[in-house]
Amino acid sequence: MKRMMIFALAIVCAATVSAQSSRRKGARGADGGEAVAKGRDAYCTIDTPARPGGTCLASAPNLQANGKLMPPLGGKPRQWIVLEAKYTTMAKWQDELTFTWHILLDGSKAKEIDRKNPPSPYSYYNATVRYVDIKKGSHMACVCLPPSHYERFGEPCTVSLLITNKEGDELALQTENMSGDVAKAGEKWWENDKFMNWQQKAKGGAEPKPMVERRQGLVDRSKTPFWLVNNADYEQVQ
Q1: Per-residue pLDDT tens over the stretch 23-34
Q2: Number of folded domains that form the chain
Q3: What is the pTM of this model?
């Protein structure tokens, strides 16, 4: 609990803007000025954000070979981190939308912790997915982390999603923390060097270690077995 309180405080300290509502009102230009997109072209909302914590864990669907189900090794399926968000657009067609994900895993929630060589308390992942030819209506977006990342580095404790159009206008931004509270719009904690370079306290003259370790592995669901499930709900990936 104390550790999560320290982390929550760090997220608050990472904010670089004054308090705003939890939902963005209108598009923001790529340079922070006036947006190119107007009216319906600028309208995009994140209706159901991806949730951190254990609720995002899921077993991949089994594939079939020669008409037979392939059972998992050991008889028990491993769990993936599956982060899904539902969003809505109002333009009749959007040429493209870019979804940038920023994820933090809490190492204390790792399934199998290496006590001799423990990872940093938090692991940071990001991924950019570009969808094309998006028609008006509700859609789904999703990224995944393979089982080994959950088992070694823990569960997501913070999930942020930024949606931009082809001109770079920011149409929607939302962050969810483990507490379930939606962070204030405009807070880009991943751009805060003080937070991202946060160091653990060194003991006995040892070299300080990072609190947040940057890692790779976050991928769009089209590159995973989950693409076999309800793939019509997701737009074509560029």
Answers
A1: 455 788 877 778
A2: 1
A3: 0.83
